[in-house]
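User: Hey, quick favor. My workstation is busy. Could you predict this chain's structure for me?
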Amino acid sequence: MINNITNETSKKFVVAIMSRDRIGIVRDVTAALEPFHANIERVSQTVVMNYFTLTFIVSFPQEYPTEKIKNLLKSAGNPGEFEIGVKAYEPAAEHETIVADADCFVLTVTGKDRAGIINTIVTYLSGKGINIIDLYAYKPDTETFILISQLSVPRRMNAAQIQLDIEALSRKAGLAATLQHENIFKATNEITAPANFSDRG
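Assistant: No problem, here it is.
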């Protein structure tokens, strides 16, 4: 339990929890927070190959040390079940712009799986000052690789040239790549992307 409570202003934390997946993890975590009047403001949860990850921003009406929050959340799981990271929220982060004056694009890459595909793509993007907002990659079978990513591309850049560069880069790796403005991607795809890009943030 949390001790040494002070009556200072509310404290906000960024929390990341990882464990083997099971039913009831979110229930257990939120139940542990409930007695302390914690408010979860943003949350993102996913399961990758039966490993569960939960990231959220939580605020309390009182100020607590980071280690106390970490210990509280550990108590929500079985002994040794959760790997937990807790960081004090920096208010400036909410208003910080990573890429100013940018448009959202969706990059899709498909092809035969091999080591180094993701690094090849993201090294190019980073070198161009393009920020990755969301990234989802998986193998529908033992041979095939699929990547879908939401990118923040500066408007000053030539999107058509970026598309050509990525296509050329992908061809060298035996892959096919497509870069589309987010609005076009939404309009031309009947299925919803695995990550709900528009709701993230």
